[in-house]
Design brief:
Layout (H helix, E strand, L loop, with lengths): L6 E6 L11 H14 L3 E5 L8 H12 L5 E5 L10 H8 L4 E5 L2 E6 L16 H7 L6 E6 L19 H10 L4 E8 L2 E5 L2 E7 L14 E6 L3 E7 L6 E7 L33
Parallel strand pairs: 1-2, 2-3, 5-6, 6-7, 7-9
Antiparallel strand pairs: 1-10, 4-5, 8-9, 10-11, 11-12
The structure holds fe (ii) ion (FE2).
């Protein structure tokens, strides 16, 4: 990572192309702003479409293709998993779980969608794979998924959080993950949970909004010692909403399970010293 030039990552989410709430003028503005920003990477955290239809995916593909960014990671959301939309997603965007590596940063994208369900899941069969992706100690580690891993304020009754959010948070925390990027709720927010920064995105270019929120997207600015989260409403000035020291790392020795895939409800709890987890 070059000290004089921060790593810049733009996160857009919940485009909802094809919906009556998708606003083409907002989408065009987002494309123009991203092209002016020239980020190192673009992460699209799902809900490209409204119903998973092919023509909606084509509109989304054209929109994303207009953003002149070298590293692009696109993930499906619950709306994209409707009507077997995953087939169109894969044809136009490739794998539903993929990764990017650039300038000392690794972004692992996870498909959290389930066919025709609004709720999300990662699943224990992927925990080891996630840990392997994040085994390089010197990389800055980011995971991206559509569904939220933590409740988001200002979104009403909690629902559709990732079914196995607790276990996923444990896997990510134990793997040294630095940042989590989520979408789904259409409300931007930043949590810091232990060593991780958990960033939720709003909807970039639709009027599927909650309360008084406006369409928005996020910009992540990573330097050698800081991580900034910048909220950007199309047509408005950027606003820094979080600014953390980059090195949040603490040592946690608590490993509740030695093997996620075989631990069962009848297995004895591992012996541990409560003072180990500081
Ligand atoms: Fe959405």
């Amino acid at each position: 990572m070059n000290a004089s030039r921060p790593v810049v990552i733009a996160q857009i989410s919940d485009l909802h192309c094809g919906s009556q709430y998708h606003i083409p003028s907002l989408a065009t503005r987002v494309v123009d702003e991203i092209n002016e920003l020239r980020p190192d990477a673009l992460v699209v955290t799902g809900d490209l479409t409204d119903m998973g239809f092919r023509q909606e995916f084509k509109v989304a593909h054209r929109l994303i293709s207009r953003m002149e960014v070298e590293n692009v990671l696109v993930l499906p959301g619950n709306h994209d998993a409707r009507n077997v939309g995953d087939l169109h997603f894969e044809e136009l965007f490739g794998s539903r779980s993929t990764e990017l590596r650039f300038r000392g940063v690794r972004i692992v994208g996870l498909d959290s969608s389930e066919p025709d369900l609004d709720a999300g899941r990662i699943g224990r069969n992927r925990y080891r794979w996630i840990e392997e992706r994040f085994s390089e100690p010197d990389e800055f580690k980011i995971v991206a998924l559509h569904h939220h891993l933590l409740p988001v304020p200002g979104t009403g009754r909690e629902r559709n959080i990732v079914y196995d959010a607790g276990d996923v948070l444990r896997v990510l925390g134990g793997s040294g993950c630095d940042v989590v990027l989520c979408g789904h709720k259409h409300v931007p927010h930043v949590w810091r949970l232990e060593d991780m920064i958990v960033v939720n995105a709003g909807t970039a270019c639709s009027h599927r909004l909650r309360g008084m929120t406006r369409a928005s997207y996020n910009i992540l600015e990573i330097t050698e010692d800081r991580v900034k989260v910048i909220l950007k409403h199309p047509f408005s000035e950027p606003e820094t909403v979080a600014d953390f020291e980059r090195d949040l790392r603490r040592e946690c020795l608590w490993k509740p399970s030695e093997d996620y895939s075989t631990a069962g409800p009848d297995d004895p709890a591992p012996a541990r010293d409560p003072k180990e987890c500081r």
